[in-house]
Every structure is written in structure tokens, then in C-alpha cells.
Amino acid sequence: MRKDVRILLVGEPKVGKTSLIMSLVSEEFPDVVPYRAEEITIPADVTPERVPTHIVDYSEAEQTDEQLFQEISKANVICIVYSVNNKKSIEKVTSHWIPLIIENTDKDSRVPLILVGNKSDLVEHSSMETILPIMNQYSEIETCVECSAKNLKNISELFYYAQKAVLHPTGPLYCPEKKDMKPLCIKALTRIFKVSDLDNDGILNDNELNLFQRTCFNTPLAPQALEDVKNVVRKNINDGVCDNGLTLKGFLFLHTLFIQRGRHETTWTVLRRFGYDDDLELHQDYLFPPLKIPPDCTTELNHNAYLFLQSVFDKHDKDRDCALSPEELRDLFDVFPYMPWGPDVNNTVCTNDQGWITYQGYLSQWTLTTYLDVQRCLEYLGYLGYSIIAEQESQAAGITVTRDKKIDLQKKQTQRSVFRCNVFGDIGSGKSGFLQAFLGRNLMRQKMIREEHRSYYAISTTYVYGQEKYLLLHEVFPDFDYLSDADLACDVVCLIYDVSNPHSFEYCAKVFKQYFMDSKVPCMMISAKSDLPEIKQMYGCSPLDFCRKHKMPPPQSFTCNTAAVPSKDIYTKLTTMAMHPYVYSKIKSNHHARLRCMCTCNRCTFCLCQNFLNSELLQTVRAKLYAVVLSRSPSLLTNTEAFSSLQIHSYCHHPLHVSQADLKSSTFWLRASVGATVFAVLGFAMYRVLVKPR
């Protein structure tokens, strides 16, 4: 809505322009009329539309042509005044004033015109028969008002219509020649209908109509009023009402009727509530509401936004197969001015066997858009009508801005749900296969992907300690010398090399040493194509020794050349490392630290118990106990040859001298070891449950 309205009055001398302004202000006809009235401002609280209004007079005797042109360019609406008893002043409307105004206004910004027939008190007949052909000739003319400054007839109405012509113009909505709404208006109202049709059945039922009414006019319709509206539609057109609900045809007819009866402010109220400007385009302020994002913070959808997107999915999943077919997807995006998702999206998120985006894939793509380009996400939510249907102030209400990652490191916990993993590797190392395997596609399915539909992103969910998290994989182009800040900004790094290529690991080692060796970002080495014969890497040390030297987890074997769906365990490990980077930092800073399990957290009961079971103390006790048992029952060696040989190997690495006293106290050692193990497990469990949360 405009902040103010500027009305300019022009016309031939002596037609009563100044008298009209003075009669409006003083509410009486002036005895003495000056050549030109000073500009006046009517406060917002005394105008029907609650908008400040500036009224400007023009006098040929006091103003130059240049001043007139300037006033025309500044005006929002121009009233061309003529005298109903002066034919020459009427002729001047078309021969002089309308061409002059058109010539001095911007072609792209149409200025509405109002024809004002003054001095109606001096004649008994109307001038409308003469004026109507002029109105039909020029689409810029909004309306014609006959009035009398002397009798105060239609003075207030004149300026009300002038104000209305600016705030609720007829031109963008309606074509008088065709007696129908213009295509842009029909397109906008069709989108509004589809957004308001919550169950996507092509009909606005009573609940949907009441929600629409409450959204646009802040009040529901009474049951009888609702029935009266339907009856009007039934009487005038067929198929306007179906199953006691309003169809799109009936919805458009109602707005045509409003405009034809001079109530186009009703249609404009609806259009502006759904984000449209005076040119019937969605306003930039509606599509892109302000959202402040501090450095080192990320953006995610909040719970309310996910609920809204779920309802949109359910609305368009007509066959209830938890996937969107191409037709259903086109129907969903029909309220957009363009198709936002290309074929690459099907290779970015999970799909079903037919290649259709699943419910999980649908939410994943929205999560990806929010994380990478939140402005684009705000725009998309605007097209879907999020702020209207969810009854929020703007789309920004559906976005959560996470806190600074430095605070997460300090507090050793994070509230984020989306984690980014940048995947590095030389050409042909298996990066694309690694991304596609995350989406459940083995090598056979990956071969069906067309090169032009390839995606450098993959996103899906993983579960860490029972919590659902999104892991976003990004394949970084293997150009070692031109890695951007975006390529390096992530929560966890994945370095992939091909076990069958002797030169593949060298690239990973260089990237790590150049960019991540002194970083706090967790890194994991992946030995891809593990189904192929492993070849020694042509580097100074083996991948395993490299990882040990730099306090990294050992290389993780991976292959997507499987008959079944590739395992997601490795992606869960990556997500865990991204969630707890402070553990990785602690490991790197401690020279003697050892990563005991690939959970990588070293906080959970499993990790603590695993570390204890691998400790030197328990290894010594186990070896000593086995020595005693074997000396008591030599036959056990024969019965459990395979198992005991493993333990003897362990015993050889922990040499002990078994004395006679040791053999006599075997019962003591058995009880002591069992008791120590039970005590350790229970102790760590109690520590996790009771002490740690405090």
C-alpha cells in the first residue's frame, strides 16, 4: 500500500479547479476565489483509505509549462476538470490535456485519469453522453464524476474516487472493451485459489472459504452470507459451485462481479494480502523479507516450516505412495512462475525405484536449499503462501539461524540438524559414487544417471544416538590450486582415494597437509573401490601410516559395487564426527591419544567401555587368567584350537612368569577380573546417566 497519494487538478481557465479544492477544505463555496490554491495535505485519519493525501492546483496564469510538466510527473492521479456548460472545455480534454499528460508521463508507469464535470448546478442535463465515448477511447480514464463546487455536490466523492484510483486502480484488473478481467489478474487470482485450496480438490469448501475470508478481511463469513454468495454464483454461471463448494470458475466470476460493480478494492485487498503489487507481480518485500545471518552461522528450517512443507506434500501426493510423480511435482509447482527443480534434483536426494522424489527426498531438497541459499528458500516459501497459510508475519518466521560454530566448540554441544561434508579426491577416485551410495544407489543404478543430470550434492538423513540429522555431501572439483573458501567451509572433510590407482592417495595427502592439517575440522580417509585389488600407493608412507601420523581414524573401506543397497554406516560416522568436532581436536592435540572406536565420540558408554576393554590392565589380567585355565585343563587347547591360538598370541605379547602361587590363586584372579569388569561397566554407565548431565 502506498504511503501517500498526490492528486493534481488541471483544466481550462474558469472551469472551477480552485473552487473545488476550497469547497472541500472549508465545506462552503468561497466568495473570493484566488487564481490558484496552495497545496494542501489531508491527514490520513480523515481519509476513507487512511492514507495522507496531497491536493495540488494548477493555474495557467501563475505557472509555466515547465512547472506543469514537473507536477504531472510527480502526480499519482490527475483530475481533468471541465465545465458541463462549456463545450470548448470538454473538447480540450481530448485535444489538449490527455495527449499532454500521456506525453509527459512514463510509459511504463500508467497514471490514472479522472474526468470531473464541474458546475452541474448550472444545467439540467448530464454530460455523460458526450464523455462516455472518451472514456471508452482512453483506458487511462478510471471514471467520470459530475459535481458542483457551489452546491458541494459530489465534492468528497470526487477526491475519494481520485484516491481510490491510485490505491485500487481498475486498469491492471479489468478490460472494459472485453468486459472481463485481464490475463495477469486471472493468473494472480488462480494462484491465490490454488494456495487456498488446502486439500487440492479444485473446490473451496466452507472451511477453506472461511480461512480465506479471515486471512484477507480479518473476519469469517456468517453461514447465511456464505450461502448467499454461492447462490449468486449459481444463478449466473454453470459449474461455479460444485459439491457445495466454490470452483475456480466461480471464484473468478465473483471478482469480475466485484470489479464491474465498482468494488475493485475488494479484489485489491485479496491481491495485496497474497503479496501482489500494483503491477500484479509478487512484491520483492513479500518474497524476500529481511533475515539477518551473522558470520559462521547456518540456516535451517524450523519445526513449523517442516509441518507446512509436509502438508504441501500430502496435498499433492494424490495416489498416497509417499512419492511425487512428475505430474504431481508439476502440479505442486504450478503456483511458481517457473519450475524451480531440475532433473539434477533427482540425483541429489532419495528417489523410489521409478526415479520419483520420495517424501524424505522432498524434505531433504528443501533442507539443502535452506542451507545453501536461504534467500531462494524464502522466495519458494512465498510462492507457496507460507506466511498466509501458516499465519506467520513472513517466510522468515520459518527459518532458524543457528548459533556461531565457535560457541558450539566452546560448549562442546550443538543444536544444529544439518551438517556439511566436503568430499575431496582426485579425478576418478570415486567421489560421485560415494555421493550416490549415500542415496541408496549401487554402482548398477549409478550407471543409469545421465551426465547432464549429474549433481555435485547429495543430502539425506542419518541417525546419531537416536537423533535424526541431515548430512549434506558436496563433491569438490579436484583443482588443488583454486580451492575457494566455500570449498573449505564445512563440518567434516572426506578424503577419497582409489585403492586400485597407485597415484590416487597423493592428492588426498596434499589437500590435507595444505588446508586441513592445522584445522579443527575433523577429517576421514576413505579407501574407495575396495572390491578391486589393492595396489601400493606411490607416496612416502602408506595411507594407514599417514592417518596414524596425523591422528586420524584409519582409512575406511568403501565400495558401491554391491548387489544390495550400500551400507550407510560410514555416513553415520561422518555425521558423528561433524557433531562432535571438539573430540577430534582433542585427539589431534594429544600425541599419545588413540582413537579406540569409529564412533569417534569417546563420550558414550560404548566408547568408554571399548577403551577400557582394550586397556593394558585388562589385557594383562586376561592373559594371566587364560594361562591359569589352560594349565588346569590342557584338553581345552584341542577343543578350542582356533580360539585359544588367538589368545596365546596375545599372551606372547604380554609375557608373564606363572608361578606356583599364581596357580593356587586362580579362583581369586577369576573373581577379581570378573568383578573389575562388571564394576567398570556399571561405573561408566552411572557416570553417563547421573554425573555427566549436570
TrEMBL record:
GO BP of this protein: mitochondrion organization
Cell compartments where the protein resides: Mitochondrion outer membrane
InterPro entries, per the entry: EF-hand-dom_pair, EF_Hand_1_Ca_BS, EF_hand_assoc_1, EF_hand_assoc_2, EF_hand_dom, Miro, Miro-EF-hand_domain, MIRO_dom
CDD domains, per database record: Miro1, Miro2
Enzyme Commission number, as recorded: 3.6.5.-
The keyword Cell wall biogenesis/degradation is annotated on this UniProt entry: no
Membrane-spanning parts: 668-690
Chain ranges of the Miro domain: 2-168, 416-580
SUPFAM superfamilies: EF-hand, P-loop containing nucleoside triphosphate hydrolases
Membrane topology qualifier: Single-pass type IV membrane protein
Catalytic reaction annotation: GTP + H2O = GDP + phosphate + H(+); UTP + H2O = UDP + phosphate + H(+); ATP + H2O = ADP + phosphate + H(+)
Predominant subcellular localization, coarse grouping: mitochondrion
GO cellular component: mitochondrial outer membrane
Domain EF-hand stretches: 304-339
Gene3D superfamilies linked: EF-hand, P-loop containing nucleotide triphosphate hydrolases
Stated role: Atypical mitochondrial nucleoside-triphosphatase (NTPase) involved in mitochondrial trafficking. Probably involved in control of anterograde transport of mitochondria and their subcellular distribution. Can hydrolyze GTP, ATP and UTP.
Similarity annotation: Belongs to the mitochondrial Rho GTPase family.
Name listed for the protein in its UniProt record: Mitochondrial Rho GTPase
Lineage: Eukaryota, Metazoa, Chordata, Craniata, Vertebrata
